[in-house]
Amino acid sequence: MSDKRSKQKSKYTLDRNIPGAFEGETVTRRRFMTGTAHTAGAIAASAFALPALGFAIGPIFKSTPHHWEVVGTEGMFTDTNYVPVVLTVAPNIGEAGKTTVYVRKFNPELDTDPYDKGTPYIAISSRCAHLGCPVRWVDAAERFICPCHGGVYDLLGRRVGGPPVRPLDRFYTRVAGESVEVGPRFSVNSELKRFSPRDPGEPLDGIGQYLYPSRPGAQKL
Amino acid sequence: MNQREKEEYLREYATLKAKGKPFFPYAVAKDSAMAVVVMAIIIAMSLVLGAELGSKANPTTTTYVPRPEWYFFFLFEVLRVVKPPSLVGLATIGVPTIGMILLFLLPFYDRGPERRPERRPVATITGIVVICAMAFLTYEGANAGSPTAIETTTPAAVKQAGGSTLAEYEAGKKVVAQSGCLACHKIGDNGNAGPGPNLTHIASRLPRQGIARTLVNPTAPMPSFKNLPPKKFTAIVNFLALSK
Amino acid sequence: MPKLPKLPAPPLPPPLREPPPRPGEANGEGGPIEDARQAGITVVDWVDERTSLSGAARWMMFRKVPKGTNWFYTLGSATMFAFLSQAVTGVFLAMYYRPDPAGGAYESIRYVTNDVFLGQFVRGMHKWGSSVMVILVFLHMGRTFFFGAYKYPRELNWVIGVVLLILTMTMSFTGYLLPFDQRAYWATIVGVNINGTGPLIGPYLSDFLRGGSEFGATTLSRFYAIHMLLVPGLLAALIGAHLYLVAKLGTTAPPWQKAETRPELRETEV
User: Fold this and answer.
1) Do the bridges between strand B186-187 and strand B190-191 make them parallel or antiparallel, or are there none, so unpaired?
2) Tens of pLDDT, residues C136-187
3) Which residues of A touch B181 (CB under 8 A)?
4) Do B57 and C106 touch (CB under 8 A)?
């Protein structure tokens, strides 16, 4: 039955005996109107939905300019212990855009990793690499300790205990005249190799750097 | 559930429904009474517990101990106890996502016609186990202390000795809390279980000299405390030697 | 032509007839109270004539509920009531709130708590109401689970319910940041970073939530918009769908309730 019908089917509506069909017409008026309803509706809906969506996700693709900030003079820092300094990472929101950074002078005996050569100062972020809680430098234990889920890091910011997935993040540093300047943040893997800044909880060893790609909004120098 | 079971259920349900009472006012009366109870609870909590506002958000803090709202305590505790870094992704995203997918698809893999809880032992036991696990994790999460404060009862022997012994004990407790020992050790209910051993009764396993030696010359990854000022060092040794 | 006798008027069709007086009701002459009553009935009739809403209301309210339903069956409506309480207190809190991370947010909440008449009370209701709502959602889900109420024909309602659970948790997560105190800030940092640990899309998801790669000027207003516009709208719509399905499919009977089929009915069954 269906076989027979499909054989009868012709491209032209006239051949299919549709009442009121024109010569050479291939699309019925009903089908044309249905298509118009769907197409016009979709265009109208996407006309407000797409710009709104783009507006909402736009900030992801906006790159933020790097900025350097003076955090102190050279005399303030030693090469054996960390000094906490406050740094602005998000402008225009006052206290809420600041963060604490632990700064120490480069120590050739401790900082033997090749990636740190030429860095005048070691600046370590206070954001735990597990989920971003504020770590504390405990002088007596020579450890960074996270109060949330028990992450522990050594003097170089490498994980020694708890759940953190990579060492503590660091900041670029430079010396201008007498003053020490701290620049943008970067993340490091367990060999202290540098990567574009990642959020906490994103491992960088092995395939981690591909599973958690760097974002256009945050790039290393 | 096959077609016959579906029809059987629908017929059974239609009979039960026909015998029932109208929603208004019989069920609505119960619902309204429950609404009154709910509002009474909310208002009582608001009046008794108030709406505290902590200190202003300060991203530069290094002393604040963040804790979530109570209904996220179970997740918080999972994050705390999952130690190996390779499993962090599993604890943060993996397990919750799998749990949510299982919850979503529940009616699609549990298709048996039986509805009585006692005749669906697998579902009922799973439900009870999940509830107990979440209650346990919530309880543990709620009692997780900060790694920079120790709250334990002073041993009776120390209390009895009183005087300088008690003062030494309290001073040592403070230094131990500030030195980050709790990040790796457990003392009483405080701190993390591992990688270091439990220190609650360390004095019964290690003599005073042994404690001091370990602090100066520890096994990795524990750092040496030999650079500590002598006064603080003695305080730590005193405290640990009194922890029997 | 002789005058034909006038035919009696045909009787009015029933819908046009005056309703007979209700018992205990004087017909037509009742004084001001009776007039007010009539006015009310007229208004309702006027609306009903143009919308036919009374049919829907009757369908919703006078549907039968199976025998044996108990207090466990009030948990769903109690959850909805908690949601209404949250919506109303939230609207009034929004009149004072400023989503400004540079200090305005915290100050406005401090002002509500300390200076506004009943401010601490209403904020307390909103704060503790969220806890109560989360508990009720879980209890309601537990009842549905243990009574097997998610089975045929109510599978779709279970799925909607799980979405409602997720949206409720989203509400409590996004609302948590708004007071902008220490607890709020750090809980949000951790929460956003938990999202970020999802492979591949995780980092972009947390960038979307923050509106940038760092917690910045627009993060708070983003959370505010999600908390008071996006998610409540979805919640209200899905609660409507949830309720419609409950009314359409009927409240479940307790699983141990069995219908006793009358013998004469049993014979017609095959």
Assistant:
1) antiparallel
2) 999 999 999 999 999 999 999 999 999 999 999 999 999 999 999 999 999 9
3) 141
4) yes
Domains of chain C and CATH, by start: 71-249 (1.20.810.10)
Q: Which value does ipTM take for this structure?
A: 0.86
C166: exposed, middle or buried (Cβ count in 10 Å: 0-12, 13-18, 19+): middle
Closest Cα of chain B to C180: distance in Å?
6
Host domain of residue A104: 69-211
Q: List, in order, residues 6 or more apart from A220 with CB less than 8 Å away.
A: A184, A186, A194, A195, A196, A197, A214
- Total number of domains constituting chain A: 2
Question: Does residue A221 form part of some domain?
Answer: no
Whether residue C217 lies within 8 A of chain A, CB to CB, comes out as yes
Q: Which residues of B touch C183 (CB under 8 A)?
A: 54, 66-67
Q: What distance in Å separates residue B28's CA from the closest CA in chain A? A: 40
Does residue A139 share a domain with residue A36?
no
Closest CA to A60 of C176, C202, C187: C202
| 3-class DSSP state of B220 | coil
Chain B window 63-82: which residues touch A at a Cβ cutoff of 8 Å?
A: 63-66, 76, 79-80, 82
Domains, chain B, in order of start with CATH, read: 1-53 (no CATH), 58-144 (1.10.287.980), 156-242 (1.10.760.10)
Length of chain C: 270
In degrees rounded to 5, what are phi and psi of residue B217? Answer: -130, 70
Peptide bond into B85 cis (omega under 30): no
Whether residues A38 and A90 fall in one domain: no
* B131 reaches C (C-beta below 8 A): yes
Residues of A in contact with B148 (CB under 8 A): 136, 145, 147
Instruction: Return the residue in A152, A158, A198, A199 with the most chain B beta carbons within 10 A, the one to mutate for interface testing.
Output: A152
Summarised one tens digit per residue, pLDDT across range C215-236 is 888 899 999 999 999 999 999 9
Sequence letter at residue A42: A
Q: Which of A56, A133, A215 sits opposite C213 (nearest CB)?
A: A215
